[in-house]
Amino acid sequence: MNIFVGCSSRDVTDNVKWSRYCTATLEVTKFITAHKHTLVFGGCARGLMGLMYKCILLNKANIIVAIPQAYINDAEELFYSNLFDFNTVSERKDWIFKNTSMHIFLPGGIGTIDELFSSIEAKRCGEHNSPIIIINEQGYFNDVLHVLARVYDEGFADEKDAKLYTVVNSTDEIVPTLEKSLS
Predict the structure, then answer these.
(1) Closest residue by Cα to residue 8 from 66, 68, 70, 52
(2) CATH for 45
(3) Contact 137, 171 (CB under 8 A)
(4) Confidence of residue 77 (pLDDT cuts 50, 70, 90)
């Protein structure tokens, strides 16, 4: 099964929460390798993305890089099963939604937030039916979740849309939630 993981492509080692983010990333990695799934990711050897990539590589699991041309140089130093490069970020996301069976989001930057919202909207529109799992380690996504709650509260979207994704708030819940999402 192809599993997309959206997360940080930058090292933020001065952040006191960084070690907890790394622990959560390693839990996702354990799940992917234990079940012999294929990692689909943005193709960067830095940040949480790099940590996940290195662990997946050490466990000899399959790796697919899905990367926009703007960042193609990031993939030069990587080993992978397949690389798909795209002219635009939109083309890349469309491919990911059609070719992956689960979307997992760990702490990350603008790209991660864009992928998360795009995945939710694409699922809402019936473009995919993959589980969307938000790993809210150390409350990283709290502000995003508050925005979504306000959208629902003020009637700009139906509250049932909150059922399109699952939020995991502790490291201990990660693997059980991912396993449950497959059943």
Answers:
(1) 52
(2) 3.40.50.450
(3) yes
(4) confident
